[in-house]
Write a structure and sequence with these properties.
Elements: H1 7-22, E1 27-28, H2 30-43, H3 47-53, E2 56-58, E3 61-63, H4 65-76, E4 80-88, H5 90-103, E5 115-123, H6 125-141, H7 143-156, H8 161-171, H9 182-190
Length: 191
C-alpha cells in the first residue's frame, strides 16, 4: 500500500472514526479494538496494518501485543484516557463453577460473580486534535484508506463483541485455533 503509518496512527484513526460514526466518547474494549485492527488488515486491504501488528491466534482469536503497546503509548502521551471498568463475565463464572465442583462439596458451592475488566478508550483534547489533523492528511493523501477505516469501524464497531468474535472465527478459522471461546470450540469440532 505504501502509506507511512505507525501503530499509534491506526488506533487514533479508529478511535476518531468510532467517535464520529457512533457519536460515542469512549471506545469499549481492547478485544474489540484488536478485532477491528485485524479486520482492517484482512478486509480493507491495509496490509501494512497486518505487518505492523503481526497478529497471531490466541485465547480470543487474533491477538497482537502491538495493539496493547500502541494503546499504552497513546495513554502515556496524554492522547487517550483509559478507564478500566469491571463487568460480569459469563466465561469467568463458568470457570469458577467448574473449579468449585472440583474442590468443594455441593453445600459449599456459591453462585460465582466473577468479573472481568474492560478498558474504555477516550480521546483526550490533545488526542482529538491530533486525530483530526491525521484524518485531514489521510483524507487528502490516502482517501481510499481513510474510507476503508470508516467502513470497517462503521460495519463492525458497534456490534456486540461476541458477534464480532463469531464473525472473525468463522471467516478466519486459523485465528480460532488457540481460542478458549465457546464459538471456537464449535469450529474445532466441525473440522
Amino acid at each position: 500500500m505504501g502509506i507511512e503509518i505507525d501503530r499509534e496512527d491506526v488506533l487514533l484513526l479508529i478511535f476518531d472514526a468510532y467517535e464520529r460514526l457512533f457519536n460515542k466518547a469512549a471506545f469499549n474494549g481492547v478485544t474489540r479494538l484488536e478485532k477491528l485492527v485485524f479486520l482492517l488488515a484482512e478486509e480493507a486491504g491495509l496490509m501494512d496494518v497486518g505487518q505492523l501488528f503481526a497478529f497471531r491466534a490466541y485465547k480470543f482469536g487474533p491477538y497482537s501485543k502491538g495493539v496493547y503497546d500502541a494503546a499504552s503509548f497513546l495513554q502515556s502521551a496524554n492522547l487517550v484516557d483509559v478507564e478500566v471498568k469491571p463487568y460480569y463475565s459469563y466465561y469467568l463464572a463458568e470457570e469458577e463453577k467448574e473449579l468449585q465442583r472440583d474442590t468443594e462439596t455441593e453445600d459449599e458451592i456459591e453462585q460465582p460473580t466473577p468479573t472481568g475488566h474492560e478498558k474504555l478508550f477516550a480521546l483526550t483534547k490533545n488526542g482529538k486534535a491530533l486525530a483530526g489533523k491525521l484524518r485531514s492528511i489521510w483524507e487528502k493523501d490516502y482517501p481510499d484508506a481513510m474510507n476503508q477505516i470508516d467502513q470497517i469501524v462503521g460495519r463492525y464497531g458497534s456490534l456486540p463483541l461476541n458477534q464480532i468474535i463469531r464473525y472473525v472465527y468463522r471467516r478466519y478459522p486459523k485465528m480460532a485455533e488457540n481460542s478458549i471461546h465457546p464459538e471456537a470450540q464449535g469450529l474445532v469440532q466441525q473440522a
